Amino acid sequence: VRVGGRKCGGRRGLNALPIQLSSVLLAVRGGPIGGGGAAGSKFPKCNPKDKPGLEKKLNYIAMAYAGAAAAASNVAAAAGDPGEAGTLTIAFLDWGAWESGWDATQKALSENNFFGAQAGATGSVACPASFKTTNACFPASVTFGEELADALNGVPHTAADPNSGNESYENLLDDALDNSPSMGAAGILQTLASSGWNPSQTYGTRIAGPRGITGMSKLLDCLETNSYVH
Amino acid sequence: MSIRQNLRLFSPVVVGLFSFVPPALPGLLNAREAEALVALAPRVSAAWRQGGCPEASTSEFGPDRFLVQVRAQCQGGREGSNLVSDYYVSRSTGAVTEGESRRIDTAEIRSARVRLLAVSRGRELSQQDASCLAIVAFESELAGADRSVSARPLTREGQPEMEYLVSGFAPGPRIWVSRYFTVDRGNGLVRDDYFGTVSFSGGLGALTSKMLDARDPLLLSPREAAEIALATPYVSAKMADSCIALVSDGQGFAEESLIGISSTCPVKAGLLGFVAVNLRTGAVSDPKTHESLSSTESDRTAGRLLDLAARRRLQEQNEVEAACQAGSGESPGLSPGR
């Protein structure tokens, strides 16, 4: 199920810039110069003031939620702990938000790359020759859930750990959850990083720690409560 | 050459770039300035020192913030992500956070912030430029008004938006024509307040562009940066292989552009490496080792292109002066308003 549209993120132009008008003489007021044209939030109950940054986050969650939840259910079931699905869902949403800049950066949009996968990743195609990137490029038809599944099914090989058993990220995550079932979203993402996804020792904490992406649960709750996602 | 000029020359890039290069606004940092601050974050400095070729990808995130994603382009041998980190930069205060809440505040960043905010505050159009734009907009929309056109400011000096009552005699028996215009001194947009819409015309657009360009640093365009790189023995030797092409999109970090050396042949398609070009000086270096790759020939090419860019800039400034003198020659309306 694809909830929300990747390409209908409600990108606003050069409007919403705080500009002061001081004269009261004129007949017509157009608001900030170059403004107008915004149709309002797609999620008015979660973004009543139509804040552009918040709208990007809500667009991202609405687009990614179904795929994140489906992958989370699979991983939690495989780990024998269905109760972890909620934490995994948040972890996967946090992961994509961090790597793709809430699916709002030009790089993420042009590459359709949610998790920063490198060239040659499963499901990817050759990037156009004019792209100066080592990242993978995915066809626009590939969804968040499909990319997440491909990333989790990938088999890491690093200099430190050649992974001779060819365990996938998902298997490595299942093992980690077996050993430490309450590792939280930061622990889940650090497990993926340490398995080979990213060299940083603080990857998980920076993304999903106390000073990382903190509002995901609240935003998701709002979207669910108001039936913007199902 | 400025970013705006880069966009005009590199039309295939325009669509991609225009969405994330917002106008320079008075007191608000632009994307390059935000990147200059992020370049000083310890994690990014470390990636640079280690030869990771950090590259910034900057997007507007709300009206007052940039999201700057930093990726280590030379961090090879890994299937997963090369993301160094995500940073948010307040365009009004220059505050830098890693993620949305972890404040990064070093002495270097504090010092750079003061300097860059001063630059951004000095970028707004002058009162004279703003009134000139209002007059040109009036002349564009009400063709036929004669040279007695004047612009009377209705806003106090120093406001980010200036309103003008622009008036002039139309040809014919004693017809006095007037209209209100508002000029945004940050981005140069002019609103026709009769309709409440932005004024567009070829002449107005060209004049605005020249005025704004004059406030940007003189930087090389992506094409010029590639031309300089081509003049180095390091790159020219690689170009002997007919499969090799350069990819220059102006992106890198602040005023240093990373140029990709790419193979387009199916057997070994993909990025093979990078060279870095300083867009202010034209110096070429290896982004992994930071050793200079410049040569006599590349220095000569850089000097020629920078000289050309400086001449173009001077010519544009002269054209702006000429247009504004012609447009407001008899203007009595430059006295302060209410």
- Alpha carbon gyration radius of chain B: 23 Å
The general outline of chain A is globular
Portion in beta strands of chain B: 15-25%
Percent of residues in helices of chain B comes to 25-40%
Mean pLDDT of chain B: 85
Number of strands of chain A: 0
Determine the number of helices of chain B (DSSP H or I, runs of at least 4 residues). Answer: 10
Topology order of chain A in helix (H) and strand (E) letters: HHHHHHHH
Strand content of chain A: under 5%
What's the gist of this structure?
Chain A is an all-alpha fold and 230 residues long. Chain A is 43% helix and 0% strand.
Question: If you had to describe this structure to a student in words, what would you say it looks like?
Answer:
The complex is a heterodimer of chains A (about 230) and B (about 350). Chain A has eight helices and no strands. Chain A is mainly alpha-helical and about 230 residues long. Chain B is about 35% helix and about 25% strand. In chain B, the strands form three sheets. In chain B, strands 1-2-3-4-5 form a five-stranded antiparallel beta sheet. The two termini of chain B are about 40 Å apart. Chains A and B meet through helix 1, helix 3 and helix 6 of A and helix 2, strand 2, strand 3, strand 8 and strand 10 of B.
